[in-house]
UniProtKB/TrEMBL annotation, chain A:
Gene Ontology CC: one annotated term: membrane
Pfam family, one: Spore_permease
Protein name, UniProt field: Spore germination protein (Amino acid permease)
NCBIfam families membership: 2A0309
Species lineage: Bacteria, Bacillati, Bacillota, Bacilli, Bacillales
Source organism of the structure: Pelagirhabdus alkalitolerans
GO BP annotation list: spore germination
PANTHER family: SPORE GERMINATION PROTEIN A2
Subcellular location: Membrane
UniProtKB/TrEMBL annotation, chain B:
Domain of life: Bacteria
Record's protein name: Uncharacterized protein
TrEMBL record, chain C:
One BP annotation, GO: spore germination
Ranges where the record places region Disordered: 492-511
Signal peptide, first to last residue: none
Protein name (Swiss-Prot/TrEMBL): Spore germination protein KA
Record Pfam families: GerA
Keywords of this entry: Membrane, Transmembrane, Transmembrane helix
Membrane topology recorded in Swiss-Prot or TrEMBL: Multi-pass membrane protein
Presence of the UniProt keyword NAD in the record: no
Family: Belongs to the GerABKA family.
Length: 359, 76, 511
């Protein structure tokens, strides 16, 4: 095992992976279901998500060798292969989805007129550089950018504070109660459920006894951020607008006014999203790289890095025509896929683990 | 123009990686790279022979359509 | 006599000194190409004429030592021994009283010492020479530092002489664990390179690594510590320096105390320090001499200056080209009015101004100080007024460039300032093609690069990434000395306690 993560770095990676993509879409998704109680969906999702995060590490923890050795030990060579293929298919879907949604966000909101392909190219190559430098480098950079992300989030929360009117949140839990709880399902899908893929990083952690704790810390921190952002969005721009705008948090950023001089510094929001999603792309890309290395049994880790990058660009360009299709996917296909993968991974490894411990 | 960029990328990839690998690794790298190059060129001409997302969409449609219909009831 | 000596000349084999004085001297002269700075003085021993000779290179030796203490002594002494070996011992005893003495049997060693400024004493009929330590000659006096000036703190700086430099550090580290190890690098220059570290605090692996990298150097000339730096640094193609250099003995001593290894190179006042972290370039030794709150504020200023110097021109380009909506309306209108008559797009405008500024700065560095003021007048007029009035650049651009320039002078280290100067242009290009997104991407790439760097095995961004809580006491916040009790733990893992003082309790004095 060459590259090592500290528990601290792992929790930051978990944080980034939960928050990436989700932070921008969640207010919209949550309010589609729960309306003014959309934030309840997020709270429920966070609570359920934390239970899931407790579960994930126990699948892989306390084993010997790398991720693939451990899975093989648990469910046998053929089962492991099938599971990794599933993870690769899912990871590929996730990565192209993220690359494309970031490209579209930037080409629609920040760089008007630049074709999203150009953005997709640059993102993919920057993250190619990152993964080729190794997991350690990604982890260290996460530590640097966590600071920026948290600062931007804090600034956003502070700056929109004067604009909030909590009337938008009323009435609390009077209407649409079931909807609010059901809304937790799609919220979970793009946050806590899909990070099941991160179990591939657990064997890289240098102190495995702390893995569960770092999963929980990262998850809780991300959860708090999501709740704050959802509440703020509903309170500032209202339910109607939140449901209406694709990037409602960006709309929230446009409300910022500082000293009646700086307005429209929604760049802050772009900052948050850009960095979180970027690390999400890099992490899944890294997992894709090591998984393909395992599947095709090559010696060198980097063999498939460059071809994968080209494939990712091509697939994201050809598969996802526009942002509405993106949303449609997120609602049905992606949701189903991420739940399916999570359930299959947890059941297959978990059951065999239980069986083993019974003997 | 796009083709030129892709060719530049491929040449760069070969220059950086070709020497690093040997034997099976090198073969795997070359095969993967040429497949990826073909795929990306097709993607730019909008003549992809395999649309990953669509394929996945169709694959799990039996399940996802049910879930979608169920969720739809709670959407306002 | 003549025939005999000729025969002897031919008989110099295997680099061995011959027993004939004349042969040896001729050989030395021949080998040095009869260079004019070689001085050979013959001496009589008692009645025997030309029984001894001393040779040295003019200018490298301390003439007083040779004349007053050695020559006069030898002349005054009446040597009793007839046997050359005995005679040699007598001479040796005589010299030992005034100077260090060594024996030499090979010409190779003899030349090495001759070049280093030692004198060689040769006696007829003896097959070895005596080396007398007479190193000296002219060199610069210990002087004020010129590159890293401080308001408060020691003012003396290193000089070109290795011995004085080591002494300057040794005077600050009166510890027997301050160990030195000497190397001679460069086949032609034979430059003495000395590494110094605190045994028991330094990580032995780092010392081993430094030694290995130094011994790997195969080159003909080392003229400055920069030559060494290029060979021992971790990443050849990084814009960021991974080796720290300083002219200040107190900075080097402080580095050694943290568990770093200092590399002294003969002939330059700049001493290297490895391993080096990124944050080291944001620190000045004065930070530790001022009170902690002041230093903390100054450090935060430096971090701010880092971002300003790196990103201001690119932000200007990005905002004027792509993101006009981010500016407040009033500012936007005034900016638009300013830029009305400007023929260039913002990127070209910024490029022109930045390049002009870099040219001016480079010219200012090379010029003698008397002409330097002329340049600054020309610069101020050309950059400031004339260009604006001629309608080539907008006044806003002038402000941006001068702001950047001032910020880039804030860093205590010239190395980092150069990297920022280079990267600034990269960021400007990214901003011109992708706006803010380009800047973000460039910044990401830069951080990835920084995170992938290591200096002698230590991650370059430590203690920021990998994050170390105890390390934060000396990054942006310079903790009061009473609170910083440990050395940075990645550098030295053996003896980490540096301070056990209890913070002084607040005593009330009854008046």
């Amino acid at each position: 095992m060459k590259s090592k993560l500290s528990p601290h770095q792992l929790s930051l990676l978990v944080f980034m992976n939960i928050l990436g993509t989700a932070i921008v879409f969640i207010p919209t998704i949550a309010t589609t279901y729960g309306k003014e109680n959309g934030w309840v969906s997020v709270v429920v999702a966070v609570l359920v998500g934390l239970i899931l995060l407790m579960l994930y590490p126990s699948l892989i923890m306390n084993g010997k060798g790398n991720f693939f050795d451990r899975i093989e030990y648990q469910i046998g060579s053929i089962g492991a292969k099938a599971l990794i293929v599933l993870l690769v298919l899912f990871g590929f879907f996730m990565t192209i989805g993220n690359i494309w949604s970031l490209s579209q966000f930037i080409s629609v909101q920040i760089l008007m007129g630049t074709p999203p392909e150009v953005i997709a190219y640059t993102i993919t190559f920057v993250s190619l550089y990152a993964i080729r430098s190794g997991l350690e480098v990604i982890a260290r950079s996460v530590e640097v950018f966590f600071l920026f992300t948290m600062m931007s989030l804090l600034l956003l929360a502070i700056f929109v504070w004067p604009e909030t009117s909590f009337d938008h949140l009323l009435p609390i839990m009077q209407l649409n109660q079931t909807n609010a709880f059901v809304g937790a399902i799609p919220v979970l899908a793009i946050t806590y459920v899909e990070v099941v893929i991160l179990i591939a990083l657990i064997p890289h952690v240098n102190d495995e006894t702390k893995v569960r704790k770092s999963f929980l810390i990262g998850g809780a921190l991300a959860g708090i951020c999501m709740i704050v952002v959802t509440v703020a969005t509903i309170a500032v721009i209202g339910v109607e607008a939140t449901t209406h705008y694709t990037y409602s948090i960006y709309r929230l950023g446009q409300n910022i006014q500082i000293a009646e001089f700086f307005d429209r510094i929604e760049g802050i929001v772009a900052f948050i999203w850009f960095f979180t999603i970027f690390f999400k792309i890099s992490t899944t890309f890294y997992i894709l790289m090591i998984s393909t290395q395992y599947l095709f049994k090559v010696n060198h880790q980097k063999v498939f890095s460059a071809p994968l990058a080209l494939l990712l660009i091509a697939a994201s360009k050809s598969s996802l025509p526009n942002i509405f299709y993106d949303f449609e996917l997120m609602r049905s296909t992606y949701l189903t896929l991420s739940y399916l993968v999570m359930i299959i991974v947890v059941l297959s490894i978990g059951l065999s683990r239980l069986k083993r411990s019974n003997y | 123009m796009r083709i030129l960029i892709i060719i530049a990328i491929v040449i760069l990839a070969i220059r950086l990686d070709y020497k690093r690998f040997s034997g099976r690794d090198r073969k795997a790298f070359l095969i993967a790279l040429s497949l990826a190059t073909l795929y990306i060129i097709r993607a730019h001409n909008d003549t992809v022979w395999f649309n990953y997302v669509e394929w996945m969409d169709r694959l799990i449609d039996p399940i996802s359509s049910h879930i979608d219909r169920w969720l739809m009831r709670y959407r306002s | 006599m003549r025939t005999q000596s000729d025969k002897k000349t031919q008989s110099i084999v295997h680099d061995q000194l011959s027993s004939c004085l004349k042969t040896n001297l001729t050989y030395i002269k021949e080998q040095l190409g009869h260079s004019t700075d070689l001085v050979v003085r013959h001496l009589h021993i008692g009645s025997k004429k030309n029984g001894m000779a001393i040779c040295y290179l003019d200018g490298l030796v301390e003439k007083e030592t040779i004349r007053d203490q050695f020559m006069s002594q030898v002349k005054r002494q009446a040597f009793s021994a007839k046997d050359p070996q005995k005679l040699k011992e007598e001479v040796e005893n005589l010299i030992t009283a005034v100077s260090a003495v060594e024996h030499v049997r090979l010409f190779n060693d003899l030349f090495k010492h001759l070049m280093a400024g030692d004198s060689i004493l040769l006696i007829d009929q003896v097959k070895s020479g005596l080396i007398i330590d007479t190193k000296g000659g002219n060199s610069r006096e210990i002087d004020m530092v010129t590159t890293q000036e401080v308001v408060r703190g020691p003012k003396e700086g290193f000089v070109e002489r290795l011995e004085s430099n080591i002494a300057l550090v040794r005077r600050r580290l009166k510890d027997r664990n301050f160990w030195l190890k000497s190397y001679s690098i460069g086949t032609k220059t034979q430059t003495t390179v000395v590494i110094g570290y605190l045994n028991g605090i330094v990580n032995p692996d780092i010392v081993k690594e430094v030694e290995e990298r130094l011994s790997r150097i195969k080159i003909d000339a080392i003229l400055e510590s920069g030559n060494i730096e290029e060979f021992i640094q971790d990443d050849m193609y990084s814009p960021f320096p991974t080796v720290y250099n300083s002219e200040r003995p107190d900075a080097i001593a402080a580095g050694i105390l943290e568990g770093k290894v200092a590399i002294f190179v003969d002939g330059t006042p700049f001493v290297l320090l490895v391993p080096t972290l990124f944050v080291d370039f944001l620190k000045s030794s004065e930070d530790y001499y001022q009170r902690s709150d002041i230093s903390t504020m100054i450090r935060c200023l430096r971090v701010l200056a880092f971002f300003i110097a790196l990103l201001t021109p690119s932000f200007y380009i990005a905002v004027t080209l792509f993101h006009q909506e981010m500016l407040p309306t009033t500012l936007l209108t005034s900016l638009a009015a300013q830029r009305e008559g400007i023929p260039f797009p913002a990127f070209i405008e910024a490029l022109i101004m930045e390049v002009t500024f870099e040219l001016l700065r480079e010219a200012g560095v090379r010029l003698p100080s008397s002409v330097g003021s002329a340049i600054s007048i020309v610069g101020a007029l050309v950059l400031g007024q004339a260009a604006v009035e001629a309608g080539i650049v907008s006044p806003m651009m002038v402000i941006v460039v001068s702001f950047t320039a001032i910020s880039s002078f804030v860093f205590p280290s010239y190395n980092l300032a150069i990297s920022i100067r280079m990267l600034r242009f990269v960021f400007m290009m990214l901003a011109a093609s992708f706006g803010l997104y380009g800047i973000f991407t460039g910044f990401l790439l830069m951080v990835f690069h920084l995170a992938s760097l290591r200096s002698f095995g230590i991650p370059y961004l430590f203690p920021l990434a990998p994050f170390s809580f105890s390390g934060q006491r000396d990054v942006f916040w310079r903790a009061p000395l009473a609170q910083s009790k440990e050395r940075p733990h990645l550098l030295s893992q053996i003896n980490t306690t540096k301070n056990q003082t209890e913070p002084s309790s607040k005593k009330e004095i009854d008046l």
